[in-house]
Design a protein that fits this description.
Length: about 80
C-alpha cells in the first residue's frame, strides 16, 4: 500500500464520533488534525463524510504548503510527496 493509503487508514482509526442530541446526527473529528470535522445523519454517513473531508484536507494542505501532522509514525512531509 502507498503512504497516502496508510496515512488515511491510520487517521481514520483515530476518529472520534459523538451522537448529537435530539436526532441531529453524528459529529466526528480526528484529534491532532485541526479544523477537520464532519457531520451527517448516521454514523456510517459521518464516517464516509469524514474520510472525504480528510482526503480534501490533506490534498489542500499539501498544495498550500501546510505542515501535515504525522500519525503513527507516518509522515506526508513535502519532501516525500511528488508534486503533480
Amino acid at each position: 500500500m502507498g503512504i497516502f493509503s496508510d496515512y488515511f487508514r491510520a487517521a481514520m482509526r483515530r476518529a472520534e464520533y459523538e451522537t448529537l442530541p435530539e436526532g441531529e446526527g453524528v459529529f466526528a473529528t480526528i484529534p491532532g488534525l485541526d479544523g477537520l470535522w464532519a457531520n451527517a445523519p448516521t454514523i456510517e454517513e459521518c464516517r464516509d463524510e469524514l474520510e472525504s473531508v480528510l482526503e480534501d484536507w490533506v490534498l489542500i494542505g499539501l498544495r498550500l504548503g501546510h505542515e501535515i501532522p504525522s500519525i503513527d509514525g507516518l509522515s506526508l512531509a513535502q519532501s516525500q510527496v511528488v508534486p503533480s
